[in-house]
Design goal:
Length: 568
């Protein structure tokens, strides 16, 4: 009998242990709603990396905190006190706050920045001392919770560097510019968390038992942009757009030796902090997305291809046909604005002769012509660190078998290019024949030779004469080596050339220690004659940009005997 009693007690004890283990397992896995755990875990969200120049931050992430509460834990007698104080600290409308508190579920009262979150933590203590909050079933007073909600992207300089900088968006389809191109570099790497015991307000106690894993933010990105230069050029372009009645004015300043973009400015900008419907058209990055026939700025490129293939002597004399020529393979005349009977090959560039450039282009085989264009980067991406770049269009090898295609391409028609392709090609002239991929961010780049240093210097001397006695005399600046080429191209609308134009000047401004490639393009310029010509619009704008660079000490005047590119 005694043995049965011992067995019975043992069985009861064993069942008790099973029940105790089951209860522990149930609480660990299921946990009823009324169960209060002294341990809590909070996620610490990682943030997107910042974008900055040498001295300025142009895009940065600011942490956002969500302030949430269950209104049932607010003492009804102290509700007005809560509304009055919280609305002041969180800068929330009182009436809106009152409507939110009518809910009986957890609600987000506000989304605030770090400073406001710190102030609200202090307010939480004040409100608790005034018995504003009541306790839950576990006797724990429930105030509001302040937790990581993410981050917001802030652009301190509003429309500066837009649309090149672009903007960050949670909807990735809305991203553009540098923000889009370097998205994987800037994106948060890993969220962190804090796990530990909590106090009566639900806040984690930072003691030896707390487990902290820090978030890893995205990397910061440094740009080559000189923000002061950028902003001054942007203001200039806004004025020029109105003055010359253009759809858009674009300009760039590039360090010819390194490929670093110091300024990439457009008259068409927007504020990424406050997007409006009217801003949508300005989000297009015209430097890489606008395709156009370049006109006469294409002539130095064709001349370089001729030099590379030993098909031209700069000093040979050619028939300029008194400014009007109709070869047998053309239905219409080729016309020059400035008629000459005879011109040297180099003066065909200086005085921008369509006729002589057409004659010279016929010396190239179709293969030489096509390879020459692709060698200078036309018909392919420039490689600049911007998304959604277009390749443009060049005639095929088969098309270039026919004289008409060689001829029209020689003076910039029948070919579609981007601003950036031209900038990159021209830069090789000022870099001893070495093409370099332009970069907005301070990252490594690539380069390769597209022409000999001798031919590059030869071409630079010719382009200097364009400034001294040709179509770009307004680009002359005492003490600075300036050179370049103008281009005024009629715009084709539905296959018909009208009375609006694209006007460009692609050139250079060098001193003893610096070499810059500077370009200006007016898209769809509608100013009256003669102001739509590049010599009257793009060239003076180029000069104003160089004046700004002198003001900022990016250039310093030289003596007259130091102005030749042969001394570099």
């Amino acid at each position: 009998m005694k043995n049965y009693r011992i067995l019975f007690v043992f069985i009861i004890f064993f069942i008790f242990l099973i029940l105790l283990f089951g209860a522990f397992l149930f609480l660990s896995i299921v946990r009823p709603p009324s169960y209060f755990s002294p341990v809590t875990k909070k996620i610490k969200l990682a943030m997107r990396g910042n974008i900055f120049t040498k001295y300025y931050s142009v895009a940065k992430s600011e942490k956002i905190y969500a302030v949430s509460i269950n209104p049932v834990f607010i003492n009804p007698l102290k509700k007005n006190l809560f509304i009055n104080l919280f609305s002041i600290y969180a800068d929330v409308n009182r009436f809106k706050l009152k409507r939110l508190l009518d809910s009986k579920k957890y609600i987000i009262l506000a989304k605030v920045d770090l400073k406001t979150a710190q102030n609200l933590k202090y307010l939480l203590t004040v409100l608790d001392n005034k018995r504003v909050f009541i306790a839950d079933k576990n006797g724990i007073r429930r105030g509001y919770y302040i937790e990581d909600f993410g981050f917001k992207r802030v652009y301190p300089y509003n429309d500066t560097l837009e649309p090149v900088l672009g903007r960050y968006s949670k909807n990735k389809k809305d991203e553009n510019g540098v923000e889009k191109y370097y998205d994987s570099y800037l994106s948060p790497i890993r969220n962190g968390f804090i796990k530990g015991n909590r106090d009566v307000y639900g806040n984690i106690i930072y003691d030896k038992d707390a487990n902290i894993v820090h978030p890893i933010n995205g990397k910061n990105l440094k740009l080559n942009i000189n923000l002061v230069l950028q902003r001054k050029i942007e203001k200039l372009l806004s004025i020029q757009k109105q003055k010359f009645k253009a759809d858009e004015v674009m300009a760039a300043v590039m360090d010819s030796r390194t490929g670093k973009i110091l300024a990439l400015a457009s008259s068409n900008r927007y504020n990424p902090n406050f997007i409006q419907r009217k801003d949508i058209k300005n989000m297009k990055i015209g430097f890489i997305r606008t395709l156009y026939e370049p006109g006469s700025v294409m002539k130095p490129v064709i001349f370089s291809i001729l030099l590379n293939n030993n098909k031209v002597n700069p000093y040979e004399i050619l028939n300029a046909h008194n400014g009007k020529w109709k070869p047998k393979w053309r239905r219409t005349y080729i016309i020059d604005d400035n008629p000459f009977k005879w011109l040297s090959a180099e003066n065909a560039l200086v005085y921008s002769s369509n006729i002589v450039m057409s004659e010279l282009s016929l010396r190239l085989t179709n293969t030489e012509y096509y390879k020459g264009l692709t060698n200078f980067g036309f018909g392919r991406l420039s490689g600049i660190d911007l998304p959604y770049e277009l390749k443009g269009y060049i005639p095929s090898i088969i098309d270039l078998h026919y004289p008409i295609y060689k001829s029209t391409t020689a003076y910039g028609y029948g070919i579609l290019v981007t601003f950036m392709q031209l900038l990159k090609a021209y830069n090789s002239f000022n870099n001893q024949g070495i093409e370099i991929i332009p970069k907005i961010a301070d990252v490594p780049t690539m380069s390769h030779r597209v022409m000999s240093a001798k031919n590059a210097i030869l071409l630079m001397n010719i382009l200097r004469k364009v400034v001294l006695k040709g179509t770009a005399q307004k680009a002359f600046i005492k003490g600075i080596f300036t050179a370049g080429k103008t281009g005024t191209a009629q715009r084709s609308v539905k296959g018909v050339y009208g009375k609006t134009y694209n006007s460009s000047f692609f050139g250079f401004a060098d001193d003893k220690n610096h070499k810059y490639t500077i370009a200006v393009t007016f898209i769809n310029i509608k100013a009256k004659w003669p102001n739509y010509f590049a010599s009257q619009s793009a060239v003076p704008t180029f000069k104003k940009i160089v004046d700004i660079m002198l003001e900022l000490n990016l250039l310093k005047r030289m003596k007259d005997n130091e102005l030749s590119p042969q001394t570099y």
